[in-house]
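Reopening this one. Same input as before:
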Amino acid sequence: MTDATPTPGLSPMETGIRCRCPRCGRGPLFQGYLTLAPRCRDCGLDFSFADPADGPAFFVMSIVSFPVVAFAGWLEVSFEPALWVHFVTSLPLLLIGCLALLRPLKGWIVCAQYIHKAAEARLVEAETTAIPASGACASGSGAVK
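Same output, byte for byte:
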């Protein structure tokens, strides 16, 4: 069953964040923490179409880093703590934030790829047009005015 027709009423955001199959909304999308399952155990959808690459990591780092850097800056300006205080407060916030968002965001991107039928770009060979010989103008007369 590799039918690309999604079940009506399933949003890619909802099914992705819940880490469920984009077609049926029931089967698990992942096998492990971030490893995609080979196929949905409920509807049989083959997940080989999915290639989120580094997209989830980029978005997670962008989302998490702004509040954590703002917090670290506020902490430094307000209290001027020792460096170890930053390691004890900011580093765990950064790690927990990234790990908490990475899986749902990857699921969302995979579901969006399915819904929008995203695929790898392919080059199409275009017909080659003849290039006029040197000295020929666009009118084809060959005379230069």
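So the earlier flakiness isn't reproducible anymore. For the record, The radius of gyration is 26 Å.
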